[in-house]
Each structure stands twice: as C-alpha cells, then as structure tokens.
Amino acid sequence: MERGPFSPRRGGYLFVFTYLYVGLTILGGFGTTGAGYFSLFVAITALGYSYAGFQILGDPPFGVIWLSWPFPWFFFLSLGLKREHLTRYTGWVGAIEGWVPGVRRGRVRRVVAAH
Fold it and tell me: Which family does it belong to (predicted)?
C-alpha cells in the first residue's frame, strides 16, 4: 500500500533512526541532548503523518495510529534534556504505547469497516 510521501514504510524510518541514534549515543558515550532534540523532530513529524491520515489520505486508522506516537517522543525529548524526574513515567508510557497502537489498529479498522 504505497501512499506517496506518506508511505507507512517511510514513517518507519522515524523509528529506525531513533533507535540507531540512541544506540550510537549510548555506545559512543555521547550526551543525550542530540537524541532529545531528534525525538522532538520525530514527534512533530508524527503529528504531520497523523494529519495526513485524517485530512489528505482519508484513512482514520492511519491517523489514529500516528497520533498516538508523538506522546512518548515528547517524553524522550524531556529525558534527552536531562529531566530525570520523568524517567519512571516515561518508561510506563513507552511500555503502554508499545502495544496499544497495535490493538487500537485492529479495533479502529473494524469500527470503520462496520460503518
């Protein structure tokens, strides 16, 4: 299912480069500020993908899934900027956000198909 600039494969690169950036940061012993700002970029881009899903592509499930992802990336920004007091909460948000979109995707598709 190719969708031009809003292809799900292209959006997947946001995840790939986030993991790559964080991994290289940890392995290289670099500061986390750059990864934090990269997470801000990813969160803003994910909002754009969500907008495209709702308004341009007319695909609400695609929009809902992408709307759920900026939330944890904003927390990754706060961790990258050394907001240590949010560490435990960010971990829980990441754990929940890791499986909720998959569950939501199946449910939203069924609801949209029923109408």
Answer: Belongs to the AmiS/UreI family.
74 touches 45 (CB < 8 A): no
Residue 81: DSSP 8-state: T
Q: Burial of 8 by CB count in 10 Å (0-12 exposed, 13-18 middle, 19+ buried)?
A: middle
Residue carrying structure tokens 């790939």: 16
- 37 close to 82: Cβ distance less than 8 angstroms: no
Predicted local distance difference test score (pLDDT) of residue 28: 92
Contact (Cβ atoms closer than 8 angstroms) between residue 12 and residue 42:
no
Domain ranges of the chain: 4-110
Length of the chain (residues): 115
Pick 64 or 109 by higher pLDDT: 64
